[in-house]
Amino acid sequence: SQLVESGGGLVQPGGSLRLSCEASGFTLDRYAVKWFRQAPGKEREGVACISRLEGITYEVPARGRFFISRDNAQNAVYLQMNKLLLEDTGVYSCTAHPAGYCPMPETGMEYWGNGTLITVSS
Protein backbone atom coordinates (compact mmCIF):
# COMPACT_ATOMS: atom_id res chain seq x y z
CA SER A 1 0.00 0.00 0.00
CA GLN A 2 1.39 3.38 -0.97
CA LEU A 3 0.87 6.91 -2.20
CA VAL A 4 2.61 8.06 -5.35
CA GLU A 5 2.90 11.68 -6.42
CA SER A 6 3.40 12.79 -9.99
CA GLY A 7 3.17 15.90 -12.12
CA GLY A 8 6.17 17.83 -10.94
CA GLY A 9 8.72 19.46 -13.18
CA LEU A 10 10.26 22.72 -14.33
CA VAL A 11 7.89 25.65 -14.90
CA GLN A 12 8.31 29.36 -15.45
CA PRO A 13 6.99 31.90 -12.99
CA GLY A 14 3.31 32.50 -13.63
CA GLY A 15 2.83 29.03 -15.02
CA SER A 16 0.65 26.16 -13.86
CA LEU A 17 1.09 22.54 -12.87
CA ARG A 18 -1.29 19.82 -11.77
CA LEU A 19 -0.01 17.33 -9.23
CA SER A 20 -1.52 13.92 -8.63
CA CYS A 21 -1.48 11.81 -5.50
CA GLU A 22 -2.56 8.28 -6.34
CA ALA A 23 -3.18 5.52 -3.86
CA SER A 24 -2.53 1.88 -4.51
CA GLY A 25 -3.31 -1.05 -2.25
CA PHE A 26 -5.93 0.81 -0.24
CA THR A 27 -9.06 2.91 -0.72
CA LEU A 28 -8.28 6.59 -0.45
CA ASP A 29 -11.89 7.79 -0.04
CA ARG A 30 -11.87 6.95 3.66
CA TYR A 31 -8.96 9.31 4.31
CA ALA A 32 -8.28 12.99 4.50
CA VAL A 33 -5.40 13.88 2.21
CA LYS A 34 -3.02 16.77 2.66
CA TRP A 35 -0.32 18.20 0.45
CA PHE A 36 2.89 19.38 2.06
CA ARG A 37 5.93 20.98 0.51
CA GLN A 38 9.53 21.44 1.50
CA ALA A 39 11.66 24.13 -0.06
CA PRO A 40 15.44 23.79 -0.14
CA GLY A 41 16.85 24.57 3.28
CA LYS A 42 13.45 25.09 4.85
CA GLU A 43 11.08 23.09 7.01
CA ARG A 44 8.17 21.21 5.55
CA GLU A 45 4.94 23.20 5.47
CA GLY A 46 1.33 22.36 4.75
CA VAL A 47 -0.29 23.46 1.52
CA ALA A 48 -3.86 22.16 1.28
CA CYS A 49 -6.09 19.50 2.80
CA ILE A 50 -9.23 17.75 1.58
CA SER A 51 -11.41 15.71 3.89
CA ARG A 52 -13.18 12.48 3.00
CA LEU A 53 -16.37 14.56 2.63
CA GLU A 54 -14.52 17.12 0.46
CA GLY A 55 -14.18 19.81 3.06
CA ILE A 56 -11.11 21.85 2.10
CA THR A 57 -8.58 23.97 3.93
CA TYR A 58 -5.72 25.95 2.41
CA GLU A 59 -2.61 27.31 4.05
CA VAL A 60 -1.83 30.96 3.42
CA PRO A 61 0.70 30.52 0.55
CA ALA A 62 -1.81 28.46 -1.43
CA ARG A 63 -4.93 30.56 -1.06
CA GLY A 64 -6.31 31.90 -4.30
CA ARG A 65 -3.71 30.11 -6.44
CA PHE A 66 -3.87 26.40 -5.60
CA PHE A 67 -6.92 24.17 -5.72
CA ILE A 68 -7.20 20.70 -4.22
CA SER A 69 -9.70 18.12 -5.41
CA ARG A 70 -10.30 14.40 -5.24
CA ASP A 71 -11.63 11.74 -7.56
CA ASN A 72 -12.56 8.68 -5.58
CA ALA A 73 -13.20 6.69 -8.75
CA GLN A 74 -9.54 7.22 -9.63
CA ASN A 75 -8.42 6.75 -6.02
CA ALA A 76 -6.56 10.02 -6.29
CA VAL A 77 -6.25 13.58 -5.05
CA TYR A 78 -5.04 16.45 -7.18
CA LEU A 79 -3.44 19.83 -6.61
CA GLN A 80 -3.93 22.41 -9.35
CA MET A 81 -1.24 25.05 -8.95
CA ASN A 82 -1.61 28.36 -10.79
CA LYS A 83 0.36 31.60 -10.92
CA LEU A 84 3.44 29.80 -9.65
CA LEU A 85 6.10 31.85 -7.90
CA LEU A 86 9.82 31.25 -7.45
CA GLU A 87 9.15 30.52 -3.80
CA ASP A 88 6.83 27.65 -4.73
CA THR A 89 9.91 25.61 -5.62
CA GLY A 90 10.25 22.46 -3.55
CA VAL A 91 9.34 18.84 -3.09
CA TYR A 92 5.59 18.31 -2.82
CA SER A 93 4.35 15.29 -0.91
CA CYS A 94 0.93 13.97 -0.02
CA THR A 95 -0.19 12.17 3.08
CA ALA A 96 -3.36 10.32 4.07
CA HIS A 97 -4.88 10.41 7.53
CA PRO A 98 -7.55 7.96 8.71
CA ALA A 99 -9.32 10.60 10.83
CA GLY A 100 -10.82 11.80 7.57
CA TYR A 101 -11.16 15.51 8.36
CA CYS A 102 -9.36 18.82 7.84
CA PRO A 103 -7.53 20.53 9.38
CA MET A 104 -5.56 17.32 9.58
CA PRO A 105 -4.16 16.28 12.96
CA GLU A 106 -0.40 16.73 13.19
CA THR A 107 0.21 13.10 14.05
CA GLY A 108 -1.25 9.79 12.98
CA MET A 109 -0.75 9.98 9.22
CA GLU A 110 -0.96 6.49 7.86
CA TYR A 111 0.60 6.93 4.42
CA TRP A 112 3.18 9.25 2.90
CA GLY A 113 4.36 9.53 -0.65
CA ASN A 114 7.97 10.10 -1.65
CA GLY A 115 7.25 13.46 -3.24
CA THR A 116 7.56 15.16 -6.59
CA LEU A 117 9.91 18.06 -7.29
CA ILE A 118 8.66 21.38 -8.61
CA THR A 119 11.16 23.92 -9.82
CA VAL A 120 9.90 27.38 -10.66
CA SER A 121 12.53 29.21 -12.63
CA SER A 122 12.87 31.54 -15.57
Q: Residue share in helices?
A: under 10%
How many angstroms does the end-to-end distance come to? 37 Å
- Provide the β-strand percentage band: over 45%
Q: What general form does the structure show? A: globular
The chain-level mean pLDDT equals 97
Class by SSE composition: mainly beta
What is the H/E string?
A: EEEEEEEEEEE
Count of alpha and pi helical runs: 0
Poorly predicted parts = none
**How many β strands by DSSP?**
11
CA-atom Rg in angstroms? 13 Å
Largest sheet: 7 strands, mixed
Structure write-up:
Helix content is 0%, strand content 48%. It is mainly β. The strands form two sheets. Strands 2, 4, 5, 6, 9, 10 and 11 form a seven-stranded mixed beta sheet that branches. The chain has a four-stranded antiparallel beta sheet with strand order 1-3-8-7, with no helix packed on it.
Q: Quick gist of this model?
A:
This protein is mainly beta. It has strands spanning 2-6, 9-11, 17-24, 32-38, 45-50, 56-58, 66-71, 76-81, 90-97, 111-112, 116-120.
